[in-house]
Amino acid sequence: MRNKKTKVLCSAIAISITAAMLAGCGGNTGETKEGTNAETKQETKAADTDEGTKAADTKAEESKDAKKEGGITLTLYGNAGDTQRPFMQNIFKLYEEKTGNKIDVQGIDTDNFENVALTKFQTGDIPDLFMHFGGYGLDAYNPKENFVDFTDAKWVSDIQDNVLPQTKRDDVVYGLPFWEASLSGTFYNKKIFEEQGIEVPKTQEEFNQVCQKLMDAGITPMYMAVKDVWPMLYQFGMDPIFQNEDNLKKINSNQIKYADIPEMTDLANWYKTSADKGYFGKSYNTDTWDYASEVLGNGEAAMMLGWDTWLYTDYDSESYTYKADDFGIMPAFVGTTKEGTFEGPNCSLMLANKNGKNVDAAIDFINFMADPENYNVAFDGISTAPCFKGQTTIKTTPQYDAAVDWVAEVGRPSIANPEIIGFSQNDGGKCIQELLVGNVDAAGCLKMMDDARIKVATAQQVEGFK
């Protein structure tokens, strides 16, 4: 997260080249079995030949041999930060204790995750287990050729209805959504608002007025860790735009560009105008996410874009004046819709390499994760809305509970990040960086975003971009 700013074009080209080469990678198809769990036995789709059956039997024998030697070690690649989430660490530990197997977690740096992971897959370095978010971003990893098809797994019926679509590509379930079902919007310090006589805004205009009033009181309205790029979270403002199915269909078939959508210009202008007015403070270009807790906790800034569960998984409540419960959450007001917008959960998936020698053990691990007895241990006390219907040990955040009716009015699913082909939170954020420092105007910023997105879609040979 803390790499120095790089040009978006270089990153986009790197991703597009590896994505294009990846389309040809994969492995031999073959039947795979879970082996030890008859009740949840799962077969991959490419398992209809005698050759495939023999391959699976060979893998099963290898797995048995490994167990005799003291257990199987499953290699897992994932975003370094994501693999360290408390519930992930809990499930890894529980699995190792119960089975004697090991999870070799190899975290990949956040800023370089897609480039590094895609390169590994293209060169055939595909782990037993892989953590990645769903949607179009998963297509670059050739899921049909590389990942186990879990469509018929018993646990699919246990996934929450608003989460299930994120597990699928072309109606095939490829991964288990083992993640926080968080609510995203704008944190606000309730005590500061009360002290300053500020009411929680309900519209974009009222939000702008709140920012100015905080400025006049000598308080930074919003903490924006621009240096780290991703915390700008500009995708929140894109959800209302691409909730329009016509916009989403046309952007994904190259019939329109970002620059053709007025609300995208409004989004870019909101970031530039807010920065110029001082709403992000004086040092936003060098501010990093590492200091988010400190700045909010000491009251230097009154608001920040984020997700509710962060206050209970990452925020250091004990070290600062303001505790987690001193914050509320309201919609993100970033220029694209009058009433603002909450973003629903965007869940990371656990996927299994269907061509690996440890495929049976990898499937067993995912089924282990999907067992209510086990996921309720892993998520015990975690502040989150449920991903699974059988979750009983989680606790929803007070921020979510207080905003639940508001969410019903202006809440939207996560759309931009998982559904726009070629979307990159980091690369798009770098375009906004260029806008904020004055290297481009709003039109130039959107052109950079379009160019990067189109390169990825073209490399993936998406219809309309070939």
Total E-strand runs: 13
**Form type:** globular
CATH class of the largest domain: Alpha Beta
Helical residues, percent:
40-55%
Report the β-strand fraction as a percent range: 5-15%
Main beta-sheet strand count, sense and barrel state: 5 strands, mixed
Low-confidence stretches: 1-68
Oligomer: single chain
For the record, give the distance between the C-alpha atoms at the N and C termini, rounded to a whole number: 33 Å
Fold topology:
Elements: H1 8-22, H2 50-68, E1 73-79, H3 80-83, H4 86-99, E2 102-108, H5 113-122, E3 129-133, H6 143-146, E4 168-169, E5 172-173, E6 176-177, E7 184-189, H7 190-195, H8 204-216, E8 220-222, H9 235-242, H10 245-251, H11 262-277, H12 292-297, E9 301-307, H13 310-313, E10 327-330, E11 342-343, E12 348-352, H14 359-370, H15 372-378, H16 398-410, E13 411-412, H17 416-419, H18 425-436, H19 442-459
Helix pairs in contact: 1-5, 1-18, 1-19, 4-15, 11-19, 18-19
